[in-house]
Specification:
binds 5-phosphoarabinonic acid, alpha/beta, 17 helices, 12 strands
Length: 460
Amino acid sequence: MINLDWKNTDAAVIGKEHGLDVKKEFFEYKQKISEIVSDIYANRDVPGKWLAWMNLGYKEELVKEINEYAQSVKGKFDNLLILGIGGSALGGICVTEALLKPYWNLLDKEQRNGFPGIFFVDNIDPDQINGLLDILDLKKTLVNVITKSGTTAETMSAFMILQEKLEKELGSSSKENIVTTTDKTKGILREITEDKGYKSFIVPDDVGGRFSVFSAVGLLPFALTGIDISEILKGVRDMDNALQSTDVENNIAAQNALIHYLMDKKGKNLSVMMPYSSRLRFVSDWYVQLWAESLGKEVDLDGNGVNVGPTPVKALGATDQHSQIQLYNEGPNDKLINFIRVSEFDTELKIPSVLQDTGIGYLGGKTVNDLINAEADATRVAVTDYKRPNIVINVPKVNGYYMGQLLYMLEVQTAIAGALYNIDTFNQPGVEQGKNYTYALMGRKNYEQTAEELKQKLHN
Ligand code: PA5
């Protein structure tokens, strides 16, 4: 199992001013954590609680359906193009980057065992989309459009561009090149899907975008690129099992949620995610969205204005040692750093014993594996010397099983943190406002009044 080392958040290590008496806090919050964990687990099947993501590790029928579809299209496409944004893209980006062979899209089809290259359009930059369209052979491209609401302007505009191009190039058979992932009944994409007869998968009810990585939102792209989704889900289930412990002493998600919550109270309201693995670099992006959208809230569950939320920050070890660590060590002591340390890499890379009579000779004969973990350990100790609280998430290996564990652990951690803050973890009213203004600016029907108000605000 992945594990958590929080000792460098303890006052015994970094001093009272910046550290916690962790064991004492675990004792004091024992009852509260027990209630929160019991409540979350008791409500996982209750409609409207937005906890259905906790059940995604157990959907055998869905796994079968996805694998069958992936098998049926295997070899037919050179490219898989994902259209989605936010929670409809980040899980896919994070897991495929971690689990596909590095530089996947530069391998030829044979080296990819017949599976397609994968591209994500998760923004609406015209130059980037045009650039991608210039290189993709659309006849050989499967487009997976992913949007829970079925209305998101960024995703749907990209879809409109792709749909028109595919229809022009392929006529009626273009529908074979489109697969949609959206709500079961609601939304414009669902209507279009039914009308055109596209193959489609469902974003289940009570699963918010940022918690959807283990639904068809993530599983379909994974299976289409040859990733073993059963292995991922086994990791999810094993972690789910471990996190059912209501005892904070035995629940790593509860421990990390509580430490973050208490550190925030001590003025350390920046949560840095810093994996020492390039393959895990997008775990940080995924975590940033999960943490920010879930915990950044204006009011609590009792209607009090609170404006809470630790700010998540992404970093990458060792790269950002040469960019951010100066600030982390000597700038304001307002951060809790989460290092992710990988014990075993898939391959080994030796540094040759050359240039022995120069100042870099000491590196010869070692491995890059030794170097990255030496840097992870050295940075952790250095940061601790500066009395900066930090946590290590130890990941034995970057594979599907541990990715399932890691992401699920962070999801449960977020749900527990939200309960500690007494906020609605699963809504995102602050995102909706911007979406509504965009609809108004782009002339969507029924947004005329908002458009008028907006015009005035823009010109003031
Ligand atoms: O987590 C969320 O709910 C959001 O980030 C959404 O995923 C994002 O806004 C995209 O929404 P949709 O899937 O409806 O297109």
